[in-house]
């Protein structure tokens, strides 16, 4: 388990939402003074594939999901307080069986 943040201070929130898969995945970008960024989002029930440009850390705030990283056959389950990392120039399948999965996505260098 990781220590998932509950709030961020001294950030700029981008009002325009990032909407994917007909509204089944929605996030907002937050920008930090050091020029880093994160997205805070919701994933509704369904199965979705995301590609990555930069490496990412997905921290689960609430709910649960099942993840398969590109190039792997094994799946892993994640719930509140857990995270998974995705390599750059890669991707992952994420499935939410019911409810909503809330997440923080950090873009890693």
Would you kindly provide a written description of the structure presented here, covering whatever features stand out?
The chain has strands at 12-13, 18-20, 25-31, 37-51, 55-62, 64-69, 76-79, 83-86, 91-108. Strands 1, 2, 3, 4, 5, 6, 7, 8 and 9 form a 9-stranded antiparallel beta sheet that branches. It has a single domain (12-108), classed as Jelly Rolls, CATH 2.60.120. It has no helices and 9 strands. The chain is globular. With 109 residues, the protein is mainly beta.
List keywords for this structure.
Jelly Rolls, 61% strand
List the helices and strands and how they pair.
Layout: E1 12-13, E2 18-20, E3 25-31, E4 37-51, E5 55-62, E6 64-69, E7 76-79, E8 83-86, E9 91-108
Antiparallel strand pairs: 1-3, 2-3, 3-4, 4-9, 5-8, 5-9, 6-7, 6-9
Short description:
The chain has 109 residues and is mainly beta. The protein has strands at 12-13, 18-20, 25-31, 37-51, 55-62, 64-69, 76-79, 83-86, 91-108. The protein contains no helices and nine strands.
Largest sheet properties = 9 strands, antiparallel
Number of structural units classed as domains = 1
Given as residue ranges, the uncertain stretches (5+ residues, pLDDT < 50) are: none
| CATH domain class | Mainly Beta
What sequence of helices (H) and strands (E) makes up the elements? EEEEEEEEE
Distance between the termini: 22 Å
Count of strand segments: 9
The percent range for helix content is under 10%
The CATH superfamily title? Jelly Rolls
- What gross morphology would you assign? globular
CATH topology: Jelly Rolls
Structural class: mainly beta
Q: In the CATH hierarchy, what is the architecture at level 2?
A: Sandwich
């Amino acid at each position: 388990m990781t220590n998932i943040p509950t709030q961020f201070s001294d950030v700029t929130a981008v009002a325009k939402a990032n909407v994917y898969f007909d509204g089944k995945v929605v996030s907002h970008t937050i920008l930090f003074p050091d020029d880093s960024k994160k997205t805070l989002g919701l994933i509704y029930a369904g199965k979705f594939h995301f590609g990555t440009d930069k490496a990412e850390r997905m921290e689960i705030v609430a709910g649960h999901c099942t993840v398969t990283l590109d190039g792997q056959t094994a799946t892993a389950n994640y719930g509140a307080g857990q995270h998974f990392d995705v390599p750059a120039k890669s991707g992952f399948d994420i499935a939410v069986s019911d409810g909503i999965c809330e997440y923080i996505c950090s873009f890693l260098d």
